[in-house]
Amino acid sequence: MTPYKDRAVVKFTNLLREVPQDIRDEVVARAKDRLVAEAKKAKKEDLEKLFDSQIQTLRDRGCPEQIVEMLRGQKESVIQKAGEMTLGQGNIPFIPVIPRTCLSPYSLMAMVKNGDKKGYTYLNSRAITDEVVTPEDPYYIYDVEDGEAMLGKAPQDAEKAIEKQGRFILTAAETMALCTHGNVLLRHYVDATGSRHGSPNKVPYVFLAYGVRPELHRYDVDGADLKWGSPSCGSR
Asked: What pTM value is reported for the model?
């Protein structure tokens, strides 16, 4: 036991001495329940702040209001689901995703920013295909790992590792959403391992062109780089 725990035990014991013995168990149980309730309330408040900030980010970056409202309307169910989850260490509780059925990659990349630099792509958007089935309407992904755990792994190898973990690879739209709602690109670049572009051997990815402007490009499925990683989610 650590010195901190030793001191805590002493303080707690001293407090219990002031409580009549016949009600100590009840007092301890009620105190535990109260702490649990307070923790749940604090977690819910944090999740609500995250949700509202993501909605504001979409508005600030020019997302059509109809799409924003479709995502905002899911607040209650998103907060409830996220509140019941056990997240991986450092993972993002949830991220709103706008599928390519609603906006093109050109519009989605325009919402990815690095400072005042808006993202872009020269890829033919019609050549992007998804390897996994996702909702056609705006939706949320949960328990999102930003790709740091897969740095240096080729997309084809990262996919196998992620599946072994019982998690899910992200599509191009989901990867662009990750880059919209965080500063992941300042730490490392991300492969959209759940999608392909033009051929089964090419994976879309998002990086900072010349270290400055976000760009959606494509890469070999068997290529690996220490600065690239495949993000994943726990559920959709």
From this structure: 0.89
